[in-house]
Amino acid sequence: MERIEVAGISLETEVAGSGPPLLFLHGGDYVAQNRSFLDRLATRFRVVAPRHPGFGTTPRPSWFRSVNDIAYLYLDLLAQLDLDDVLLAGSSFGGWIALEMAVRSEARIGRLVLIDALGVKFGGREERDIADIYALPADEVLRRTFADPARSVPDYAALDDAAALAIARDREATALYGWKPYMHDPALVHWLHRITRPALVLWGEQDGIVAPSYGERLAAALPNTSFETIAAAAHYPQIEQPDAVAAAI
Question: Residue 134, Cα to own-chain centre: how many angstroms?
């Protein structure tokens, strides 16, 4: 882990591997469980994986309150690191950030990978596109998040205080950025046509947070996109099936 200062914010960042640049944007939870997946990517790419402001040990300034702020921050990060033709990959909440970045500027983005991404509202006002993780019982959220929760959910009792605090900060920050409107930007669907770079939309076949049909609609809304499902996986396929997701990328 290292620290990269961007716009006065000290980003906790993992940098690994060599090759073409890949910026990975994590989801709202289970950040540590991406370790195996990032190791696989690092055999082919120079992976840059920051913790979003408010997550982990990355501070969040009081004025920094929206996904749009994160998008601008990471566009500045790409410029500061002088990265071009970047493969931009985002999982869940991180996929939302990736979309917000790409509709603003594709100047340094070469390709886009969206893994069970949030951020877009396709259905009507009374239709729920994204499961409300704050209203559902905890055990149901786990069943919707992982095809096999026992293999992927950490043993929280075994974590030290620092790791437990980081997880608590992750969940608090996710709620702050995505509480209202719930996990989407109402305007974003109207700007998706601005994303012209080749994109790959990957979806866990058993995702109970955001159904694969949502992923198909997202892929159809992007001009230059393919859609693939990952078997034996739900909302975080890169955690449950890291080899399959890395191979697809």
Answer: 19
Looking from the CA of 64 toward its CB, the CA atoms found within 13 Å total 17
90 SS3 class: strand
pTM, two decimal places = 0.97
For the CA atoms of 102, 103, 108, 110, the dihedral, rounded to the nearest 10 degrees, stands at: 60
In whole angstroms, give the CA distance from residue 55 to residue 32: 12
Q: What are the strands, taking DSSP E only, across 39-106?
A: 46-50, 86-91
- For tokens 């869940």, the residue is 92
AA letter at 78: L
Are the CB atoms for 236 and 116 separated by under 8 Å? yes
3-state class percentages of the chain: helix first, strand second, coil last, to nearest 5: 40, 20, 40
| CB under 8 A, 24+ apart: contacts of 18-21 | 18/46, 19/44, 19/45, 19/46, 20/44, 20/45, 20/46, 20/85, 20/87, 20/110, 21/45, 21/46, 21/48, 21/81, 21/83, 21/84, 21/85, 21/86, 21/87
- Locus of tokens 């702020």: 69
> What would the pLDDT profile of 17-75 be if each residue is shown by its tens digit?
999 999 999 999 999 999 999 999 999 999 999 999 999 999 999 999 999 999 999 99
Rounded Cα–Cα distance for residues 160 and 32 (Å): 13
